[in-house]
Amino acid sequence: MGNPFDAEKKQGISLKQIKNQKVLILLSIPFIIYVIIFCYVPLGGWIMAFQNFKPKLGLLHSQFVGLDKFKFLFSNDQFLKVIRNTLAMGVINLVLGTVTAILFAILLSEFRFNKGKKLVQTISYLPHFLSWVIVTGIVFDVLSTENGIVNEILVNLHIIDKPFNFLADPKWFWWIVGFANVWKETGWNSIIYLAAITSISPDLYEAASIDGAGRLAKIWHITLPGIKPTFFILLIMNIGNVLNAGFEVQYLLGNGLVQSVSQTIDIYVLKYGISQADYSLGTAAGIFKSVVSLILIVIANQLAKKMGEEHLF
Hints:
Layout: H1 4-10, H2 15-20, H3 22-40, E1 51-52, H4 58-61, E2 63-64, H5 68-74, H6 77-109, H7 114-125, H8 132-142, H9 149-156, H10 170-198, H11 202-210, H12 215-239, H13 248-253, H14 259-262, H15 265-275, H16 279-306
Antiparallel strand pairs: 1-2
């Protein structure tokens, strides 16, 4: 005998349901128009990636060159290094950001003093609203060779003999960017995990207490499984943003000494697409980033589906 819910799912949306939701549909129309105008209409400019685009000739009259711009990108050693840098910083941001957000949310949920908890939450959200100009200024001060707190601590603990210029050493740059992102976004990213923890039934914790479970056991067997669906949904979405490793922080912290590891795809697009007026090459690089992001989301979603976990579609 067939499942009655399957038949209901196949019916789709009825006219009656549309009429019942007409107010919400009307309210959503301005946002749909906004998305179409500012998100989909500009995609027509992607044609520049297949042209030797000249502003004076426009999209319709510029010379068509096929895949020449893409061939140049993938034969360019600098662009391959840019992809490496973007992926590396994107993965570091993803791993550090996810782990610290979950840990911070769990620690806050275990906090027993409500006034202190609200104060900590508020303070942790504040860096999210700071511009990267301010954040990178703080990073410069913290890592400064003159009175920088990191160097002061390392010298006083006799870990290093003299102040070290972290921002001039390529091997430290990716991790500096990663921890700058963690400091800025951990509080904000933890909000959704806190909401997921709050939705877990208190009865489960009470039953665990009766069985003699301690705090760590409750976290391991109740809290973490309870936020697992949220974790997978956010992970799938964030995997699609791996190539959006950033622009401001790398651009502001970067210098000639670390240029080989600080350049991202966004900086490459700025350099060639705007500074050198090669709009076609910049567009081709942007298309590459968008297509790879879409592929990553689809792959992550299919893997989550095969594992029987929450997925987007």
